[in-house]
Input
Amino acid sequence: SGLGFGIVEGVLYHSQVYQPLEMPLSIYLLRFFSVAMLHGCWTVISAACFYHLTENPDDQSHNPPTDIFEYTFLILISVIASMSLHSLYNVLISRYLFLGLLIAWLTVFVTVRVFDTPHEPQNLPHPDSAGVE
Output
C-alpha cells in the first residue's frame, strides 16, 4: 500500500505542486524515482515498530494491548518515525537537495536495519542437536 500511495503522490506532486512552481527538473526526477520506494520503506518502518510494540516476543514481561485506546496509541507511536522522515524529506527535497537525499538515505538505512534484525524470538525453547529441549 505504501508503494502504490507513493506512485499516486508522485504524480499529484508533479501536476499540482511542481509544475505550477516550475521546479527544477532534478527535483522532479528525484521525487519521481525515489518517492514510491521511500513510501514502501516508511510503511515497513511503521509496521515493524507496531509489531515490536504489540507482539514483542523477546520480552517475557510484555503484556499486549487490551483495548482500542491502547492499540490507537501504539499505532500513533509507530507512525511517528515514518511521519518525521517523510516530512523532513518533503521539506528538504525542494529547498536543500543534498539534505533531502540524506533523509532518503537515512530512510533506506533504517529499513535495511529493520530487516537485518534476527527474526527468531530469543525466548522460545530450542532443541539441541539430539532433539531434546
About this structure: The chain has one domain: 2-116. The first helix runs from residue 2 to 21.
